[in-house]
Amino acid sequence: MAITTTLLARLGWPVLLCGVLGTAQVQATTTTPLPLTPAEQAYVQQHRTVWMCVDPDWAPFERLNEQGQHVGIAADLMALVAQRTGLNIQPLAVRSWEESLAASRAGRCQIMSFLNQTPERETWLRFTGPVFSDPNVLITREEHPYIADLQTLSRSTVALPRGTMVEERIRTDFPKLQIVTTASEQEAVEMVSERKADMTIRSLIVAAYTIKQQGLFNLKISGQVPEYTNQLRIGILKSDPVLWNVLNKAVQTITVQEKESIANRHVAIQVQQGVDHKRVWQVLAVATGLLLVGGFWHRKLRQIDQERATLAEARVEQTLQTQRNQSQLMALLSHEVRTSLSIIDGAAGSLRLLLEPDNAACLLRVERIHTGVQRIQELTDQFLTKDRLESGALTPQRVHTDGLTLCHETVHLLDEQHRVRIQHQGDTCLCADPDLLQVALRNLLVNALRYTPPGSPVTVNVVGQDDHVVFRVTDEGPGIPAAEQDMVFFSYVRGSQSHGKPGSGLGLHLVRRVAELHSGTVSLDSPAAGGASFALSLPRA
Asked: How many angstroms separate the CA atoms of 427 and 402, rounded?
């Protein structure tokens, strides 16, 4: 078949679709009359016209054409339902799917034509049995690797039309993915093609249709989400139970053959009747020539692919070796710096003992030396930790750890421990790497003490929840402007409030990396009135 054969065949998918949309055409079918009760028959007689909300731009499933007519697969199926119930089902003119949902909620239409059943929609709709099924697939650019499990992705961007079942479920099931909402199916696919998003998750029929219509042949199918298969149904207002009974009975009479016939009418090859032998020989000759050319190019492309694979492997090995060399150099430099700093700090300590207590000027200089040494040691530790975390050389060694005890130990190592107040609630034990967790807690506390005015306290609240332990560090500093809050966890980023304060912009980045290594999260709450509260949430196991 003709629709982007290479698109579907890359993963061994059968080629299913091709062609263009047509208008709603329903052939007369002979069926047994619906077994309606007297109450249902009376309802149909009294409510001949039923208003229906649709998606005005969801080709080839459904759309409203220039004349305001409902066309597509859903339109043909709804025409069958209208024929068998005797109802006059009319589409409500809307401009977007969001407007259609709002109109249904407001009761401006009694039914919605073609949508998935979700908990949110069940608050005002009751659904018939499935009218049509279609898998949802992952659409990416050609260079993107195969995606076996969405849970393995982190910080990937997904373009999804607003108000869809997929958007609602992705936000809940895969919180690590970053969702970019669009106004239409076409816009979501185009964002992936233009590298504005990493992927989109769309119906196989709609995705293939859009890719073919728009000529977006730099895309491919990179996987499937079986649990997200579209089970498209008719939604009826809960306030109209009799109408649900009538429509559900009609849906059950639609056969598999009728569904396939309607789908093929919109997404299938047109077959010409009769045989033109001369044309057949011409086609065979052209096909033979194409096969020969294709065979040559196939061998050529395999050779090129092998060369690319070899080159890619060499580049990967070179990159890994560079990272290993860099890590070794960082470790060596850190050792040398620490040794030199220990000598300087020891000499300053000895000098302090030789000075007279009333020699304030010299004692101040010695104290500055000691403070400078501590600062360089802190920076060295941060750079070394960052390098080991980013290179993968440092992995969590999880053991049974009491979060409250670890907080007390971390605070005890700080110079201004008297300003820190520790509170706790519930069971604070978890399975974590105590060394990495102490790195994260120390950076949060040092930041809080640094920006909190002298004399003001810093609060640490350790809360044991059902399956998480949350460490919340709250300060009374100037806070972080809303425009900067999304950036504070990046490397070497310092906010506008950091002028005159020491720091390298690595502390909060290390906190985020420790959270990720423990499959946890870190978040920031900084109201306009001032102050900042960082919450580090780690799973118990």
From this structure: 9
pLDDT digits (tens, 9 = 90+) for 167-214: 888 898 999 999 999 988 888 988 999 999 999 998 888 877 777 777
* CB count in 10 Å sphere of residue 112: 23
pLDDT grade, residue 10 (50/70/90)? very low
Angle value at C-alpha 282, between 276 and 288, nearest 5 degrees: 135
Q: How does 270-301 read in b/e, with b if 16+ C-beta sit within 10 Å? A: eeeeeeeeeeeeeeeeeeeeeeeeeeeeeeee
Q: ∠493-498-499 over CA atoms, to 5°? A: 120
What is the pTM for the complete model shown?
A: 0.44
Cβ contacts of residue 63 below 8 Å, gap of 6+?
21, 54, 55, 56, 57, 70, 71, 72
Amino acid type, 156 = S
Q: Which of 128, 89, 77, 70 is nearest to 262 (CA)?
A: 77
What is the mean predicted confidence (pLDDT) over 325-341?
61
* Beta-carbon count within 10 A of 511 CB: 24
| CA dist., res. 344 & res. 231, Å (int) | 71
Determine the residue type at 443.
N
| Cα angle for residues 276, 282, 285 (degrees, 5° grid) | 140
The count of other CB atoms within 10 Å of the CB of residue 419 is 19
**Can you tell me the distance from the alpha carbon of 62 to that of 73, in angstroms, rounded to the nearest whole number?**
6
Residue 104, phi then psi, degrees to nearest 5: -65, -45
Torsion of Cα atoms, 434 then 436 then 442 then 443, to 10°: -160
The C-alpha atoms of residue 111 and residue 46 are separated, in whole angstroms, by 17
| Two tokens, residue 375 | 């600062």
List C-alpha distances in Å: 94 to 53, 117, 207, 452: 8, 21, 23, 54
